[in-house]
Amino acid sequence: MESVSKIRRWVLVEGRSIRSVARATGLSRNTIKKYLRDDSPPSYQRQSPPVRHKLCNGFDLRLQELFDQDSRRPRRERRTALRLYEQLVAEGYTGSYSPVQRFVRELKRAGAGSGDAFIPLHFAAGDALQFDWSEERVVLGGVEQKVKVAHFRLCHSRKPFVIAYPGEAQEMVLDAFVQALSFYGGVPRRVIIDNPKTMVTYVSRSKERIFHPRFLALMNHYVMEPVACTPAAGWEKGQVENQVQFLRGRLFVPKPAFDDLEALNAWLRLRCEELANRPHPEQQDRTITEVFEDERAELRPLGRAFDGYVEKTVRVRSTCLVQYARNRYSVPSRFAGHHVSLRAYAGRIVVVSGQDVIAEHRRHFTRNISYFEPWHYVPLLDRKPGALRDGAPFVGWQLPDAMHRIREHYMAGKGGDREFVDLLLLAQDHGIEVVETACDLAVAQNTLRLPAIINLINQLVEPVITPLSDACAYPQLTLRPKADCKRYETLCSAEEVAV
Known about the structure:
Helix 13 (401-411) runs antiparallel to helix 14. The longest helix is centred in the middle third of the chain and has 15 residues, at 170-184. It contains 17 helices and 15 strands. Strands 1, 2, 3, 4, 7 and 8 form a six-stranded mixed beta sheet that branches. Strands 9-12-13-14 form a four-stranded antiparallel beta sheet, with no helix packed on it. It is an alpha/beta fold. The N and C termini lie far apart (146 Å).
């Protein structure tokens, strides 16, 4: 452009000839005449499109095929450009990632409209934590199923934390926050959330929120300020929204397979630590872990963990069962017909009467199933010993080996139900450990009769008197008594006078 301006100035302003300008610049006279006729800047017209990538040998077609396959999948299961690049490398592609990224971006732009504009947000160290849910598919115990994944992200350091649950119930929300704050080792000043019913019970026209009392108790315990986003304004917690998409491709495509939910969560925790070794998006010379170590100093101390349960009052049925979330759990028989407090945690059910915990069960997420603790029904066997054979709580009861052998021995004879029930009742009085030890001794001595076992139990519970180690330590008489039989006659005469 500078040469064109110089040529036009020499000819049109200074009056130099085209021949002399051609001699000075080395350009042809036709080129100089073209510059004089057209005052627009010169441009280069490419004859053919440039070859900017190495997606040759059919890899461009293969990438198009993979992209078309993903377009027919649910959005959460679609692979990112990086995952597609890794797939091509596994198939023999030797080019770089950039051509694949450009190719996928052009495919995504086809038919896409213009995006919205947002204001970039800035968060100080220790200021805010963002939270969101996602739904993923995993394989647990060989069965494919849906799980709900709680996503957390510290806004300054960008460190992620995810944990999976069977659902989004409130007790799982409470447990997720407890686990996340324990993972970070501190408490930020604010938490930015959506408006689910488990956390926000009401949103007024003026956008004021009424938070759920139990969620508010969690916030008060950790002294955090809850900040609910404007409905349909996901950009207010855009970091965790982007994290959901990023981690879906990294952690849940293809579907992870584990034996149970505990193993899945242990793996997710390790992967969060590994992903934190990536460069920080704003401080490229440092990793997320390094920035997090600085942010941890700004987090408040964690303190005692919040007891994250949801409580309700229930009535114990005549079958000694209480119901929660379509399943039934047993309690001791003496509480039948009483009202008790049921506390539902993310992974267990605790039943409380007054200040005492009367029953505790592992939580199950089935439907219409009763879960028994056989010892809760043992006192009823005193009146109904025949129920030991066909009672539902005693089907498949896993007793210690010695007690199981004694049970089979008793049940083989007439009246064995009554004898084994008496043995179980002794366990209620003295403890299962004592009775189990006595049964082990009975099996070892081959004395399986009930009186012999009762004798062994009495020997185990009798107090043991430890003899003095030194005989000289016994008390010594200071005055040796005299052998005098008349003293007995004196005592007899004194008794007669008293009568």
